[in-house]
Amino acid sequence: MSILNYITWNVDPEIFSIGPLSIRWYGLLFALGFVIGQRILTKIYVAEGRTEGDVDVITIYMIIGTVVGARLGHTLFYSPEYYLSNPIEILKIWEGGLASHGATIGILFALWLFSRNQKFDYLWVLDRIVIVVALGGALIRLGNLMNSEIIGHPTTVPWAFEFVRLGENPVVPRHPTQLYESLSVFLLFVVLYWLWSKYKGALPKGLLFGIFVTALFSFRFLVEFLKEDQVAKEATMTLNLGQWLSIPLIIIGIAILVWVWLRPTQALPGGRLPESSNA
């Protein structure tokens, strides 16, 4: 017999509504990630000789890169046939459908543009941004939990969640995979922030980014074994889409860590580029 007798999860995704305006937990937690992240990033930038203005600019790049990348990632990775036939549906973000792998690509491209336009060392930028991205990722997965989405397989573990709002009859206890990911990414945030706070500019370029990418997508690869399929075509796949999309990112992360190990290089203070690169 289960000690906890399972956890009944029947949270309303909507916090409140005023007329046509609806405030949902997912949107609140998504936005909270940017708000808290901006404060933490400001502390990091100021401690290393940059300004709050730099953080304001990079936040704009981050928001655009995250939203556009996550939405395009969902439409192109998971349901390309539908969205390419109905392109106007791509714009309906409020109906749901954001992919973390797409967000990763969008963020990487947006920060490359930021680094190029604002004359920053790209790896220095990535090493610091992953700290707040980890925190944002933890909050987004909590949003998924509030939506009772991205659920796990049925299980009898004592911490299983019964997702009442799925409408199953009878209700089936399942792995709370959203919570697994949220807790793991929050732990990653703690580790990355601790490393930065202890060593700051003495950290080799690429170390934090390499740790983040390798750890995040390795855990994502593993936890996918506990998840229900996100789209029907995954039922016939040995590995699901989330796992296939994670593999190249894991390889990139490991390659960066090996590069850092073999050729450790410190960034210039404040992520400045060498004089020859500013021309």
UniProtKB/TrEMBL annotation:
The keyword Cell inner membrane does not apply. Pathway: Protein modification; lipoprotein biosynthesis (diacylglyceryl transfer). It comes from the Bacteria. The chain crosses the membrane at residues 25-46, 58-78, 98-115, 122-140, 179-196, 203-223, 243-262. The keyword Cell membrane applies. Its main location: membrane. Keywords: Cell membrane, Lipoprotein, Membrane, Transferase, Transmembrane, Transmembrane helix. It is a multi-pass membrane protein. Its EC number is 2.5.1.145. InterPro entries: Lgt. GO terms for biological process: lipoprotein biosynthetic process. A 1,2-diacyl-sn-glycero-3-phospho-(1'-sn-glycerol) binds at residue 141. It is an enzyme of class 2 (transferase). One of its GO terms (cellular component) is plasma membrane. It is found in: Cell membrane. PANTHER family: PHOSPHATIDYLGLYCEROL--PROLIPOPROTEIN DIACYLGLYCERYL TRANSFERASE, PROLIPOPROTEIN DIACYLGLYCERYL TRANSFERASE. Belongs to the Lgt family. Catalyzes the transfer of the diacylglyceryl group from phosphatidylglycerol to the sulfhydryl group of the N-terminal cysteine of a prolipoprotein, the first step in the formation of mature lipoproteins. This is Phosphatidylglycerol--prolipoprotein diacylglyceryl transferase.
